[in-house]
Amino acid sequence: MNDVVIGCPAHIRWVRDKTQVIIVDEQRGESCRLTGAEAALWSWLWQRHTYPQLVQWLAALLNTGTEQAGAYLADRLRNWHAAGLIVTHPERVDGELNG
Amino acid sequence: MANIIVSDVCNMACAYCFAGPYMESARHTEQGQFVDLDTFARQLDFLDRSGINEIRLIGGEPTLHPHFSDLIALARARQKHIVVFTHGVITERTLACLEAIPPQDCTVLVNTNAVRDPSTPGTREHLRRRAVLERLGQRALLGYTIATPDAQLDFLVPLAVETGCQPKIRLGLAQRVIAGQNTYLHPKQYPFVGQKIVTFAEMAARSGLQIELDCGFVRCMFSEAGLEALHAVGTVLEWRCSPVLDLALDQTAMYCFAAGGLFSHHLDLASSDPGAPSAAQLRHALAEQAAPYRAAGIYKECSICRFKHTGDCSGGCLAATFARFQPGPSPVLAVPADALELEKGLPLTPRFL
């Protein structure tokens, strides 16, 4: 199966604070906060790491195996996608982005 | 409170100017450089129906309006208390116009560090400003915008005392303008400046002068001992950032100049609709527009600060807060499609964040 490219919609802006990430959805006029592992993951997401790297780091952060970390990552991505914080791009990549 | 922008031009060139980007963008529109008298009359109507008894004239430099005295006359006819924000290097004619207003009906807020050329702070400007202040007397209130940590404030005390101005000095922080590239005081520099303000306030108090802080100050830029000292000398302390409501020539109501490019509403002054928004309703709408960003502040610590949580401190300037936010880049990550389960047709479960 091909990879899907994800990114942030243009109306999402965010900031990393002392203990949390604050995300503003300018379209809805709402903000939300992420804390703990979610906040760390959100920050890592935009640093152009690869998906396998994120899984490994999450495993270290959560002190779990890579399978659980992978499930955690997929779960967070699904929720953020559902909440409109991330979007998928129609183009598919075959190794051109993040391996 | 609402500020009326009556002039889109200024003959100073302050590096920290909040209005610079606004004036620059206005130059490329078809609107005139000055408010016309009909529009001004409608703005007065707006203030009347909003229950505002004070008119605050800003710019650019408001006194450059070719019919400045007519603006004053129109406002006076409505019994408005007049506030003029000026650099103070004004013509004899304008000065005479302001002198004709009883001191209790007018405040002329004079920005004492406005300069024609930032590289050569002008002695001529200082001399003219001093002469103007002497003539305005109790109508004048000294203001100073702190744009750099090495700002020299001491001259303000003898200037206020010797010219007979109001026994107050209003200090402002040069704030970053979202849409521009002005010189501004970085929040990292606030604690240093805070200590300087404490020393200055104590010095000013010995001459009977009180210090007022403009918007955008934050509580934590002062030490606890510093705050005690400021209270002891009667400093007016407010940690606020709320929509000022700057009414532009194009009938835009802006949050303020610093945040104006992003947070604004169109105001139809010609509307006879009795349901047309009042100033209070516009301010509320602008505050709502900015509310999502208010979860943060100018520092990383603001969002967990108890003073921000209780509303005692706004967390600093909205424009500086907004500047901390970054857009999420896109595209950024290749994700195995099955991780998102997009191709399996499984429902995505929303989760409240």
Report on the architecture of this protein.
The complex is a heterodimer of chains A (99) and B (353). Chain A is an alpha+beta fold. In chain A, the strands form 2 sheets. Chain A has a 3-stranded antiparallel β-sheet with strand order 2-3-4. Chain B is of the alpha/beta class and 353 residues long. Chain B has a single domain, classed as Aldolase class I (TIM Barrel, Alpha-Beta Barrel), CATH 3.20.20.70. Helix content of chain B is 32%, strand content 14%. Chain B has 12 helices and 12 strands. Chain B has a 10-stranded mixed β-sheet. Chain B starts with a strand and ends in a 13-residue tail after the last helix. Chains A and B meet through strand 1, strand 2, strand 3, strand 4 and helix 3 of A and strand 11, strand 12 and helix 12 of B. Strand 2 of chain A pairs antiparallel with strand 11 of chain B, so a sheet runs across the interface.
What does this entry show, briefly?
Chain A has 3 helices and 5 strands; from the N terminus they run ββββαααβ. Chain A is α+β, with helices and mostly antiparallel strands.
Which terms would index this structure?
heterodimer; A: 99 residues; alpha+beta; 3-stranded antiparallel beta sheet; two-stranded antiparallel ribbon; 29% strand; disordered C terminus; B: 353 residues; alpha/beta; TIM Barrel; globular
Low-pLDDT windows of residues of chain B: 343-353
CATH architecture of chain B: Alpha-Beta Barrel
Number of helices of chain B: 12
What is the beta-strand fraction of chain B?
5-15%
The low-confidence runs of chain A, each spanning 5 or more residues with pLDDT under 50, are: 94-99
Protein structure class of chain B? alpha/beta
The spatial strand order of the largest sheet of chain B comes to 7-6-5-4-3-2-1-8-9-10
Structural class of chain A: alpha+beta
Instruction: Kindly report the name of the CATH homologous superfamily of chain B.
Output: Aldolase class I
Q: Biggest sheet of chain B: strands, sense, closure?
A: 10 strands, mixed
Order of helices and strands of chain B: EHHEHEHEHEHEHEHEEEHHHEEH
